[in-house]
Amino acid sequence: MELWYTEKQTENFGITAKITKTYVDEQTDFQKLDMIETEEFGTMLVLDGMVMTTVKDEFVYHEMVAHPVLFTHPNPEHVLVVGGGDGGVIREIMKHPKVKKAVLVDIDGKVIEYSKKYLPTIAGELDNPRVEVQVNDGFMHIHDHKNTYDVIMVDSTEPVGPAANLFTRGFYQGIYESLKEDGIFVAQTDNPWFKADLIQSVNKDVKEVFPIVRVYGANIPTYPSGLWTFTMGSKKYDPLQVDEASITEIETKYYTPRLHKAAFVLPKFVEDLVK
Ligand code: SAM
Predict the structure, then answer these.
(1) What value of ipTM does the predicted structure carry?
(2) Which residue of 33, 35, 45, 106 sits with most ligand 1 atoms within 8 Å of its CB, as the best mutation to test the pocket?
(3) Enzyme catalytic residues
(4) Ligand 1: which atom is nearest the Cα of residue 161?
(5) pTM of the entire structure?
(6) What average pLDDT does this structure show over 17-35?
(7) Which atom of ligand 1 approaches the CA of 228 most closely?
(8) Structural domain 3-54, CATH architecture
(9) Are 200 and 244 in contact (CB under 8 A)?
(10) Which DSSP symbol is given to 24?
(11) 3-54 against 58-273: fold identical
(12) What are the residue boundaries of the structural domains of the chain, listed by start?
């Protein structure tokens, strides 16, 4: 008998993948966690019925969270990742020799544990000595660490359950205070097809807190609609002012120096959301 997994992306629409194996099917203290093997995208981490990452397309998201912001800040020594327990963003951060220390704060230790076990190509750098892993609420961590980080990356689940308060103006204010005087942050901000309201409200909130706000996109086939957005808030440095020649070579599959600025060129209907 064939087994298929469906993520309902809206009440009336979803994506479906053929499952060949189920490794984990567990309710953690915070969310429902599934680790499944799919025919088309390899091992897939699913939280509360939403695809978080797959072995085949994870590189797009993880590279596009980490590299645009790290190549915008001239000296990103201290970096914080809120969420990101699968370790993909940390793996990309570790490609930057300027980063002395990266702290990862995920609320759910089970995501970290199972990612190390079933997603080794993604989680492989979590034990790097430059990385400190904490199991904690990112909201609390931000409020307890003022003027601490050069760069903060928010790699959270969607704004339901434990991540609900990570999409609020209060959280962005906390991030502002947790950053040093020239700090920058980036957050994944969902898709413009089904979550236009969310993109608009995040954009409004971030603009009330940060002087420089930029939105960029990437194509991620297993995320709702395939078109994903990221919002950057910066105190001083503008990603659009980065000199392409200053971007050093690192091993990537999606991000390139030319893409750095190109990713900020948005389709008209997305541009209209964040004007
Ligand atoms: N790339 C994914 C996406 O956009 O679909 C998200 C990656 S997943 C690893 C996000 C992580 O955020 C989960 O491991 C979850 O436990 C964590 N998370 C959710 N709320 C959090 C909070 N308040 N503080 C810290 N981590 C949180």
Answers:
(1) 0.98
(2) 106
(3) 155
(4) 20
(5) 0.97
(6) 97
(7) 4
(8) Roll (2.30)
(9) no
(10) E
(11) no
(12) 3-54, 58-273
